[in-house]
Amino acid sequence: MTIFLPLVGAIVLLALPRSGARFAHRVGITTSALTLLGALAMWWRGVGTGFSQIEEVAWIPSLGAAYRVGVDGISLPLIVLTAVLFLASFVFSAKIDERARSYVSLLLLLETASIGVFAALDMVLFYLFWEVTLVGMYFIIAGWGYAERQRAALTFFLYTLLGSLPLLLAILALYLGSEPRTFDMRVMIDAPPLTGLAAMLTLVALLVAFAIKTPVVPFHTWLPAAHVEAPTAGSVVLAGVLLKLGTYGLVRFALQMTPDAFRAAAPLVIVVAVVSALYGALAALAQTDLKRMVAYTSVNHMGYVVLGVAAAAVATDAGTRALALDGAVLQMVAHGLVTGALFLLVGMVQDRTGTREMGELGGLLGVVPLLGWSFVLAAFASLGLPGLAHFPAEFQVFLGAFGVYPLAAAFAVLGIVITAGLYLRAIQASFLGEPTERHVVMPDLGLREAWAVVPLLLLTILLGVAPRLVLDVIARAS
Amino acid sequence: MTDVAGELRMAHDLALMVPELTLLVASALALIAEMLRRPTWSLWLAGVGLLAGTVLTVPLVGTETTVFMGTYRVDALAAWSKLILFPAAALVLVLLRSEIRGKAREGTAYSLLAFTTLGSVVLAGVGDVMLVVLGVLLASLGSFALVAFEQDDRSTEAGMKYFVFGSVASALMAFGLSYWFAAAGSTLLSDLAALETMRVAGVAGLVGVVVGLGYKAALAPFHFWAPDAYDGAPVAIAAFLSVVPKVGALFALAQVVHGLPDELGWRAALAVLAVVSMTYGNLAALTQTSVVRLLAYSSVAQSGYFLLGVIALGRSELALDSLVVFAAAYAAMNLGAFAVVMQVGRELEDFTGLGRALGWLGAAMVVFLLSLVGIPPFAGFAGKLLLFGAAIDAEFAWLAVVGILNSVLALAVYLRIVVAMYQRGARTLRPLRPVLFVSGLALLLTVAIGLGAEAFLVRPG
């Protein structure tokens, strides 16, 4: 039900052709707020073991495809996260006047698709929503991005389509391997249909698909370009929600539907995850553009998620497995909130100064204290300060990974040190010191901006202080 | 006694061919109307014939039989070809009317279009090699004239090329098929299993039939006529050629190879052809500056995708489904795309600013193009899902991998149009009603087939 709420909003908006920009944004905010309420209602109803709140409608019965949705402890937190981030994006982008109706409709479509991916329990449905997110994001970047947007959008679409088509093959392989043939994901998870070589080939296709989406090194090259050119709200959604589709798929498909093959391939995945975490951190360190830097830290953080998932795949005792997997899911949520906030704040800096180059900024903490301190808080969260969202997540991931691959965990921890360094450097360059002459006077956080970013920061603190709130739900699944 | 039985049999057979006969009569009447200088009557006769044929086909869905001693099949492919191609041709009529209204020989075009459609559906039901030749000729002769309709230099050249290419290909096919007749001692496709022991003759015939039907379906490397012919013909005729005879020929290929013994290696041969068609079609489309030529090359690539389903025949129960669903999807989305071209213009630069000038038409074009790539929830996705599934099921997983790589190429091709559409530089366009009608209907079908693929699945009983 909640899935299609944004779509209804989009249709309403398109059906009223003469409405102005203000009206469009009002529809966007209202719809996404209602969606958030819906998501919270789902949270309230809670999850049992396995999948809950299932809805099933026949679709293509001859092929065993149906409209099947439901949630478990892994998908529910991500759905709520999606609803939160979209609401923040809508609030933040309420200033966009250019073709506001199309913009809001596309973003609403994207919201439906994102929630749909997390809720889908049918592989065809999953793939359908998955591809719609690509199309929606393509048009958001191409239509409302910065200077090089056409190119960036094209790269994004081609690259991620290249990633999603192996997923289609894997889905078909799983389908053809099941007996009787079905696209029902619950069946696949309860009794993984493939074994041996077929399972391994399927896993390879899945890993390629999700590695591009997540992204991990060496498939990450589309990410910085897309982020740099995307409008702020686009970046928030891209980093906060769409990257999670990759890691969510990794858990849902690779880990749960081809577990044996994943176990065999885990060492390789772990190497990729560690390299990704370190490379992402180092590459972020080398950036002078704030937005690019935040984009690369995503590669680093998603590396930890992959590490956690891979550790869960090999872990023999249930405790370690749960530790690593819970940590990975919590890390997804934390990254969504924190990186969402960071992209919003960088967007605000750019709106005020017209630049994101650290060298051209300085002393922002003095000029715009609220914005500045918000950035510092988000940055500290992102580097894993205890008491903020990333800490419990990364702690669990490392603890879980340490139980299986101590060496890999040790290397990965180095990433945190680098991240700490790069954020401190960024804060020093842009927010401390003397303000540059051009940027002496500018307005601090406006009401609209505060409404977008403050809830994310509050949730970051809440998650850091009381991770149990979410972990208890996640733990139902593992 | 025997006479009565024979007559009953004859009546029974004819009853199963009512849709074809209806269209035949309608086409002939349309021609007569043209002789009476009543082109509008021609239009209505052809249109009504096509729609009546569609309606009369509905009771035949689910029938699995042959008529006239096995030479003509009344089966799923035959029925679906009519249900798909008749309405598609009717939509082309709507487009064609607005393009050639008031020109000399207007009614001839409608009549020829109906005859060509008849040839195409005959191809889809072939049960005999002689009927293959007949179908190709019937579907070709009208097309030659339709391509050259405008009678200017460009269209005459296009028609001439098409004619020469078609004649040679048909001759080669007839020559190759004579080997099959000599070897198997029968012209029936169902007797071709006998070729198992006669590989040389079997392969010679296979080459012939692949050349002949490959030309009709514009499979690379037998596609050379297609870009020129599409470019020289009226846009509506290009749309027609890219859908109706093509689907007919591909269904005919399915009918022919289905009965062939595995020993001839037809699956491997068609797999190679599929790879060449998909890859060459997409690569060539990448460099076109004319949208008509771009769509011509992309239709070469789409033919390659069809082959995935043909190859899987006999090995996967998804094969038949995939052919039918993809044919329906392809007809809807390709006709839609050509309808938009008719409104906007043949060149890529004509598309600049379309998304801003005519928002809904632009959005429809985006849907058609994404559907051609195979992005859900549109029709092309349902088709490709089944095609890839059939290929993997038939142990041609590598072909499915080539197919997905080509989908990425295809996206690059189609996005060139999308990018142009949303560039600045809007111009004013006065929407043409027939275009809006056809593209709107095609849009509806592209979405409906994508979501309601169940209705197209061929299930016994």
Could you tell me the number of beta strands of chain B? 2
First-last Cα distance of chain B: 34 Å
Q: Going across the major beta sheet of chain A, what is the strand order?
A: 1-2
- The separation of the N and C termini of chain A measures 26 Å
What are the low-pLDDT stretches of chain B, counting only 5+ consecutive residues below 50? none
Query: In angstroms, what is the radius of gyration of chain B?
Result: 21 Å
Largest interface in this structure: A-B, 29 and 29 residues
Helix content of chain B: over 70%
Query: What overall geometry of chain B do the principal axes of the alpha carbons give?
Result: globular
Structural class assignment of chain A: mainly alpha
Folded structure, characterized:
Chain A has 478 residues and is mainly alpha-helical. In chain A, 74% of the residues lie in helices and 3% in strands. Chain A is built from 19 helices and two strands. A two-stranded antiparallel sheet of chain A has the order 1-2. The model of chain A has no long low-confidence stretch (mean pLDDT 90). Chain B is mainly alpha-helical. Chain B has 18 helices and two strands. The model of chain B has no long low-confidence stretch (mean pLDDT 92). Classes of the chains: A mainly alpha (478), B mainly alpha (461). The interface between A and B is medium-sized, with 29 and 29 residues.
